[in-house]
Amino acid sequence: MESIDNRFKVSSLYADGQTTFTLSARENVPLSLVLKNASAYAQAYRLLVDEGKTLVIKAEDIEASGSELFERIAADAKVLKIGNAGRPLTAKISTHDKVTGSVSPFDDMSGEFVYGRVRGTFTGYSMNKMLKLELSTDITFRGDLRMSITPNMEVWRGAPVTELPYYAKLRSLLRNLNEGHTLNITLEYQGEHGLSGGTEGSSFKGKFENAESLFLYVDAAREISRFTGQSILFDDTETIGGGEIEQLIDIASMARREYTKVANQVTWPIAFNIEFYDDAKKQAALLQAKESLDLQIVQAGGDVIQVFRQDVQMPPKVVRLLGVSQKITELEANNGEPNYMCEVFPKDEFSMEIFYRTTDDDIEEGR
Asked: CA 324 to CA 292: how far, in whole Å?
């Protein structure tokens, strides 16, 4: 294609069913570009001139002349992108916790620095383009430094939650920024220092609350997937409420046997039905003794919960009430069997444990 107009160096890339041609002028080439809808591109054109940011134009909105090669490609294209030639740079980033003094380095970010009459902008990516950094500075490199960090979690969509690439690194960086850690950046060209800058901790503090909530949910989903041996696929297309997140965190803590409550964290009384065999009155009297009782309730069959709108079968749940008193409140007929309504109240030493039964537990269901 360069033989059509050797004033341009031409490179092409085919990906996802589309071909991208890149034309780099070897010399000044006079071209005529006529926009049919110029007002729609006024702001983007200003950013091209002042900051060097790429101008994207719909092919249907442009008429090009001055180069046969340019005209041919523009005639068949969907969009035309015009931008300044960038300089390849590498951004080295780290976060600094001023409270503890801890410094956490992260993956280098490769990108390009482009500039216009007023400002220059570095755009770089890391973690297989899951993280984008944009840094804009006055062309004199004196003050007025602007930064943005953008995660792209769509890459995870449809992948098992236990196999999300770069999950730990991305979570660590965004959590640090969300907690108010300082972000430090150094731009290097071919290993030589070019520009350094940083943000105050307040710059990103609280900016990634939604991401933090998602990480809490995914952390719990990963634990449940490993505990049950069932695959759970990541899905960022559904809105997850705060109540759903808290519920899944509780379930995960039950899976690792760390879910406990004390008396002031439980709504009293706890009521349930109990069925006696043989001498019901004697058994009821034992339950209502003044001494402190330990009760264990085992679910008959496990619940089916939803994680990312996918059904997950859980094993039977075990509830242990340690240090309680019990009161029989009502006796009812239940198919001819004595069925009592009971209420449980806490003693001073009360605690409650809830966990999921595993094959290693010597516990019977429904007891």
From this structure: 5
**Of residues 248, 257, 357, 242, the one with CA closest to residue 307:** 248
- Return the percentage of the chain with pLDDT > 90, whole number: 44
What does DSSP assign to residue 277? -
Helix (H) or strand (E) holding 86: none
1, 7 contact by CB (below 8 A): no
pLDDT at 336: 56
Specify which residues 271 forms β-bridges with.
343
Whole-angstrom Cα distance, residue 165 to residue 110?
Answer: 18
First and final C-alpha spacing in the chain: 80
Distances in Å between the Cα of 292 and the Cα atoms of 55, 117, 270, 345 are 76, 80, 16, 10
Beta strands in 157-206 (DSSP E): 182-189, 192-199
Residue reference for tokens 């960022």: 236
Amino acid symbol at 215: F
Q: Which residues contact 230 (CB under 8 A, 6 or more apart)?
A: 312, 313
* Residues whose CB is less than 8 angstroms from the CB of residue 9 and which lie 6 or more positions away in sequence, other chains included: 2, 23, 24, 25, 26
Residue 348 host element (H or E): strand 337-356
Structure tokens at 274: 């109990």
Contact (CB, 8 A) for 218 and 147: no
Please state whether 12 falls in left (phi above 0), alpha (psi between -120 and 50) or beta: beta
Condensed to tens digits (0 to 9), the pLDDT of residues 67-120 reads 888 788 777 778 888 887 788 999 999 999 999 999 999 999 999 998 888 888
Please, what's the largest Cα pairwise distance for the chain? Answer: 104
Among 364, 248, 264, CA closest to 303? 248
Tokens (6 digits) for 70: 């340019």
Helix (H) or strand (E) holding 168: helix 167-178
Report DSSP state, residue 156: G
The confidence score (pLDDT) of residue 228 equals 96
